[in-house]
Here is the input.
Amino acid sequence: MKLPRRNFLHLAAGAAALPAVSRIARAQTYPSRPIRVIVPFAAGGQSDILARLIGQWLSERLGQPFVIENRPGAAANIGTEAVVRAPPDGYTLLLVSTTNAINATLYDRLNFDFLRDIAPVAGIISLPLVMVVNPSVPAKTVPEFTAYAKANPGKINLGSPGIGTPPHVAGELFKMMAGVDLVHVPYRGGGAVVSDLLGGQVQVFFGSTSLTIEQIRAGKLRPLAVTTATRWEGLPDIPTVGDFVSGYEASSLFGLGGPKQTPAAIIDRLNREINAALDDPTLKTRLIELGGTVLTGSPADFGKLLADDTEKWGKVIKFADIKPE
Here is the structure.
């Protein structure tokens, strides 16, 4: 049976609209089952704690479990690729971090393009690092340390938890901008760096607040500055590196992302809920206690932060000629 042309066109238009209607329907019923949040690091660390805090809040808010799945390995690339390959339906998310931005340049042959293949959902927190030295170092300020380093080129060891980690590139950014020659000594984890910093095998470390604050308060490490653009309330009397090295800023960003082509309606829903979480007084207090500043904003805002981070650390990696292990 032949259909009149008008009826045929009407049916064809309706069929073409079905995928869009289906996507809208899915977004309206989202979430209808548990959501996986892949953390590309081992359990128990800062990333894991952040994911579990936000996941618990979202579970209670949305009525579905947010299951934290740790997928460590290859400097976060294994977990990231698992999300890149997942269906773009909002049921697999990635705990995104500055490590992803660094890896985009550090690794020449990844099976994905981070900025292209991961859709930003929402920022969560920005964490400072603290520039600390062994008390035997005769410098109490960043200018004094810079002068000491210039007087002793190649004789001061800069510790880091590993090649290409945020503390490593933060130290390389300082070397580049302050014009000093420090010897990078990579370790396998931040705890090992702190141990050797206390023992005097390395002299300076750009460490996370969680790793360094107890030793600072005990007087075993000397803080010279924090790496963020503004002072950290956990050490209110300590200046920023940027107070002395104009334009210096380094922080560890964390947020959530999903596979590209995740429906915009689902991303927007998650973004609204995460922003609500960051405004919740109890959760906000917990996040600030970790030493950070909450990152409210749109998916585009978080995407711009990641793009800017990727560009900045890419320049540092190329300048310092950093190669992965």
Remarks:
- The first helix runs from residue 5 to 29.
